[in-house]
């Protein structure tokens, strides 16, 4: 993740994103289902695996969302969205902070509204995002329903 965030060379960042996507796509996604995020004031020598995985997932969400908003390179954005889609499908949002899923969704919508460098990038990414949002919808239908209907702007009257 450090290379993905801070390396000045685009090829290194794309390679880092590809490696992260491969790690997220493999059997490790099954193990992430035990993740649980808990704020802890104690920092001892032992942390349960579930808490450690929860912290890792939170950091991945934060880093990927930051990069999606700040980066403009088409190839890297495609890799970042692939990682985010895998991250969304692997994260047990019921055991994560309640504001995480709404933050992901509103960040995606904000990025879509900002636009992409090339028109054809937007079409493919929107399809992938829509497909993944349907998967998240199945798992978190009530929270998703409330978020979408709260965030949707009113429709303009047709003339």
UniProtKB/TrEMBL annotation:
Pfam families documented for this protein: DUF4042
Lineage top rank: taxon: Eukaryota
Secretion signal, residue range per the UniProt entry: none
InterPro entries: DUF4042, HEAT6
DUF4042 domain segment(s): 1-119
Listed name of the protein: HEAT repeat-containing protein 6-like
